[in-house]
Amino acid sequence: MLENPRSPRVRAVAKLTKRSARHESGLFLLEGPQAAREALAYRPDTLVEVFATPAAVERHPELRAAAEDAGLDIVFASEAVLGAMADTVTPQGIVAVARQSATSVRDVFAGAPRLIAICEEVRDPGNLGTIIRAADAAGADAIVLTGRTVDPYNPKVVRSTTGSLFHLPVAVGVELETAIERAHAAGMRVVAADVKGEDFLEHRATLSEPTAWLFGNEAHGLDDDALSRADLALRLPIYGAAESLNLATAASVCLYETAFAQRAG
C-alpha cells in the first residue's frame, strides 16, 4: 500500500496536473469513480495504473472486477497519497493514469461523418469539457480541437466530460484551415456559431445535412478569417433579457438541434 505522499511514484503522478508533464509523458490524470468506470468500459487499453483507497474499492467493487478484466491490479493508497496525486481537493478515493489517445484528423473525416464539432481557441476547460460531453450526448461522430484550444487532457476538462472523452474520437492540435478542408472534402457544410450570423431559425432545415459546427473563443468568438472559411454563420435568438449565452450552452443547443434535424430527416 502506498502511504508516502512524497514518494517518487506519487510525485510522478502528481506532475500530470501540469501540461508540460503530460506533453512529455503522453499520459494524463483521471480522478473519481466515474472517470475510471468509463475508461475501463470503453478504453481499458489506455489505462496504465489505477490507485484507490481500500474504502473506495469496497464502495465500487465493479471497478476492481473491470480492472482485473483489463489485466490491471488496483494499487491501494492512502487518502494522503491520493490527495497529493490529484488536482482536486477530494478525488473520491480513486485516481488513475491513462495514455493519451488522440485520433488523427484524417481518420475523423474518413468515415462519412454527419455531425462534428470543431473548437477554435476555446480556452476555458469547463466549457471544452461540456462541449465534448454535449457532442457525445447528441451522437456526434467526433470532436476536432485546433492548436489554440485548451489541452483536452487538462484535469478540469477531463472531469467536465464525465467520461465522454472515452466515448468519441478527439483530434488535437489541428490547424483550422486543415479541419475545414477535411470537412468540405467529406461533404460536410461548415456552420459557424457567431453572434453576427444569420438567424438560426431561418436555416434550421439545412442542418439535416452533414454538418461541422465551428465554435470560437468565449470572449471574442471567431475572427474574420475563421468566419470567412465557414459556409454559413448562424446566431441563436435571445428571447429574454440575457446579454448572451455561455459558449458551452450555445454549443449544446446547436449540436442537439442538428441531431434532431438529422434524425427527423
Automatic annotation (TrEMBL):
Q: Where is the RNA 2-O ribose methyltransferase substrate binding domain?
A: 29-104
A Pfam family that this protein carries is MRM3-like_sub_bind
Q: Which GO terms describe its biological process?
A: methylation
The record's SMART domains line, in alphabetical order, gives: SpoU_sub_bind (SM00967)
CDD domains on file: SpoU-like_rRNA-MTase
Q: Which UniProt keywords apply?
A: Methyltransferase, Transferase
User: Which domain of life does the protein's organism represent?
Assistant: Bacteria
A molecular function (GO) held by this record is: methyltransferase activity
- Keyword Ion transport belongs to the record: no
Family the UniProt entry places it in: Belongs to the class IV-like SAM-binding methyltransferase superfamily. RNA methyltransferase TrmH family.
- Name this polypeptide is given: RNA methyltransferase
User: Could you tell me which species this protein originates from?
Assistant: Microbacterium thalli
Q: What is the lineage of its organism?
A: Bacteria, Bacillati, Actinomycetota, Actinomycetes, Micrococcales
